[in-house]
Amino acid sequence: MAEPKAAWTILEILRWTTDYFRDKAVSEPRASAEVLLAHTLGVSRLDLYLRYDQPLTPEELARFKALMVRRRNGEPVAYLTGHREFWSLDFRVTPAVLIPRPETETLVAATLEAARLLRGEGEGCTTPTLANNTGNSRESSPPAPNRGILGLEIGVGSGAVVIALAKELPEITWVGVDLSAAALEVARDNVRRQGVADRVHLLQADLLTAFKAQPSFDLLVANLPYVPRQEWERLPKDIKDFEPHQALVGGEDGLDLISRVIGQAHRIVGQGGWVLLEVGDGQASSVAALLAETGAYDHPETIIDFNKIARVVRARRRLG
């Protein structure tokens, strides 16, 4: 395929780049070209077609070609632009965090439904108490007493899930936990940008080790690494070579971290509270069985995503 010429209109460069990406086996060639060009020009994707005959300046063409080469080499579009849309919100992303996926919106929707069932039933949970080994003066303080329903997300990454929930559920206070300091920096920025810093408090900790065993939370949400090790080896280049390994791989069967959380969650989730876990394809039955084995929950439910995959396992803590 010939190199692009010196002067191009928006429509011409879009067509050429789409064909070029397709020839190089770049995933989503048209969308990649549109997003990168819109980012280069500082316009929306719709504007590209409203201004289709607008020529690019030499400087714009040079910036776009640099991004195009990086995309050809596998770098994800979200890392190239520094942004990703999730739940119709704009999030900053960096290589320190997993890129939010559309299927994870299933976890948000399932949590919203669980929260509706909790309204007016949040009494009886105590204020979360941090374990002795988690003091960190840089982190947000935990919620004060008498704040109503309390939610917890384990593994916040970019903060996309907990922020979407905080935007939709302004009556709920949230705590978000992640082991990665770099991921928490991204999450803090997104919390500030989305205006929910008064209701989302971030802590650096390993899973649930930050909390003492007492019924503190009404909702526990987690999108933990669940890719089995062998499956990770087969992932596309733009995932395997660029996204953080520790945010993807969950051990040999993908359930190492999920099983650890299940073994502890019922100690910090109050009666009538909910545990909601995102899982990989084919994992739902195993995760539901792990929840049932604790004897702490009513019958676990599975929730299907838009690809007809059982994406979320949800269970409610028994009453009494």
Note the topology.
Elements: H1 10-23, H2 29-41, H3 45-50, H4 58-72, H5 77-81, E1 83-86, E2 89-92, H6 105-118, E3 150-154, H7 160-168, E4 173-178, H8 181-193, E5 200-204, E6 217-222, H9 229-233, H10 237-240, H11 256-265, E7 269-278, H12 284-293, E8 301-304, E9 310-316
Parallel strand pairs: 3-4, 3-6, 4-5, 6-7
Antiparallel strand pairs: 1-2, 7-9, 8-9
Salient structural properties:
320 residues, alpha/beta, Helicase, Ruva Protein, domain 3, Rossmann fold, 2 domains, 12 helices, 9 strands
Structure notes:
- This protein has 320 residues and is an alpha/beta fold.
- It contains 12 helices and 9 strands.
- The protein has helices spanning 10-23, 29-41, 45-50, 58-72, 77-81, 105-118, 160-168, 181-193, 229-233, 237-240, 256-265, 284-293, and strands spanning 83-86, 89-92, 150-154, 173-178, 200-204, 217-222, 269-278, 301-304, 310-316.
- Strand 1 (83-86) and strand 2 (89-92) form a beta hairpin.
- The termini are far apart.
- The model is unreliable at 133-138 and 140-146 (pLDDT under 50).
Give the strand line-up of the largest sheet.
5-4-3-6-7-9-8
Structural class call reads: alpha/beta
Query: Which value, in Å, is the CA radius of gyration?
Result: 22 Å
Q: How many domains would you count in the coordinates?
A: 2
Give the % helix. 25-40%
CATH class group of the largest domain: Alpha Beta
Distance between the termini: 69 Å
Low-confidence stretches: 133-138, 140-146
Query: What is the CATH architecture term of the largest domain?
Result: 3-Layer(aba) Sandwich
Identify the CATH homologous superfamily of the largest domain.
Vaccinia Virus protein VP39
Q: Given the C-alpha coordinates, what overall shape results?
A: elongated
The helix count comes to 12
What's the overall average pLDDT, rounded? 90
Number of strands: 9
| N to C succession of SSEs | HHHHHEEHEHEHEEHHHEHEE
Main sheet attributes: strand count, strand direction, barrel closure = 7 strands, mixed
CATH topology of the largest domain: Rossmann fold
Strand proportion, as a percent range, falls in 15-25%
